[in-house]
Amino acid sequence: MVQGQAIVGVFLGIILVMSELMIYQRYKDAYKNEVIEEPPISSLVPFSQDLQIKLELLVREFKKEIPAAAFKKIINIKENLRLLSAQLDNRELSDYDLHIVKQTIIDYLPTTLESYQEVASDSVKKGKLENGKSSQEVLMEQLEILDEQIKKVVMNVNSSNADSLIVQGNFLKSKFSNDNDLL
């Protein structure tokens, strides 16, 4: 009787393995033309850290090719982004502010630096540009605009935090001011 149960157990095990293989084969056939990719590392990293990494890579790429004053502006942008990291990760920024921060790091700043690099490497354009300014002056103007936009986002967040603190203080005053009579 024990042998019979053992044989049935082995038989059921074989059936289970075969059914799993058939399911796997159907899955494999159904998705054979699709490439299943692992999620990008950036999806595993907090949003602000992902932006900081992109900015750091950008800084390293252009560090030797940009003037010291321009590099200082980029460091300001980087520091302001660090100040916003908690709000970025918690998606506490307005859609507009979030867009400004994200686009500055992934589009506006790289495009500005790449454009400067192209002009600076072109020996014909090393003098004054059509607007009468040097490429370094134009770069500094553009970085100033980007830096000011990021600073505005920081001010918006700080203002929002201050407003929240004031509202909370007013709530607490109104909530507990009437309780003094009870003590």
Features:
183 residues, mainly alpha
Descriptive report:
The protein is mainly alpha-helical and 183 residues long. The chain has a domain of 118 residues. 74% of the residues lie in helices and 0% in strands. The chain is built from 6 helices and no strands. Helix 2 packs parallel to helix 5, helix 3 runs parallel beside helix 6 and helix 5 runs antiparallel to helix 6. About 4% of the residues have low confidence.
Q: Note the gap between the termini.
A: 83 Å
H/E series: HHHHHH
Structural class: mainly alpha
Alpha-carbon Rg, integer? 30 Å
- Shape verdict: flat
> How many beta-strand runs?
0
Report the sheet with the most strands, covering strand number, pairing sense and barrel closure: none
The helical percent reads: over 70%
Global mean pLDDT:
74
Low-pLDDT residue spans: 38-44
Q: Which range does the strand content fall in?
A: under 5%
Count the helices. How many?
Answer: 6
Would you spell out the secondary-structure blueprint of this structure?
Blueprint: H1 2-30, H2 47-62, H3 68-83, H4 85-89, H5 95-121, H6 135-177
Helix pairs in contact: 2-3, 2-5, 3-6, 5-6
Structure summarized in a few sentences:
With 183 residues, the chain is mainly alpha-helical.
